[in-house]
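Subject: Sanity check before I submit

Could someone independently write out the structure tokens for this chain? I want to compare against mine line by line before I put it in a report. The sequence has 202 residues.
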Amino acid sequence: MVAVLVAVGLQLVLPDTVISGLGPRWLVPTLEGVVGLALLVANPRHTVKSVHLRLASLLLIALVNVANLVSLAELVAALVNGSTHAAGRSLVFASVPIWLTNVIVFALWYWELDRGGPAARLEDDHRAPDFLFPQMTAPSSSPHWTPGFVDYLYTSFTNATAFSPTDTMPLTAWAKLLMMVQSFASLLTVALVFSRAINILG
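---
Independent answer below. Compare away.
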């Protein structure tokens, strides 16, 4: 929930130029807040297995993800179409919250989908893992070790910075596709926005 709140906060600091396609500035953060609050009340520790609660969690992550992708698309369009020096600076600075939100939202996807979700991972009969963490192969690790949110956040951050897996390997098709989409979004942000920044800020 802290990660979701940070993502919502990052959306609120974006300039109007990159959120105009999302309707009024308050609309998406309000929807995210309502769904997040409902989840916090119904399942505060995220340990209850429920199809409805899991769908609500996926809906919340999808809302954050779609909002960020729309902001990224509008940012790219604004930079490609050109802007004044002052407006260009605000657009370049807007790329930072978009990139950070990209890291957070994909960490949430990995955390929510791996092995059927956080509640399912607590059970002994959970499905096969979708990610291979180093702790799962280290001889000194506990056989009952399960990844926490920080493990997925680290995986997301390294994938967004290296544009490829580092120490954690995707094992299933959906995990590979998600990491590919995240790497592409991160690469687009870095390559296009930073190259534009050189022209604007140089």
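---
OP: Matches mine. For the report I'm noting this point. The longest strand covers residues 131-132.
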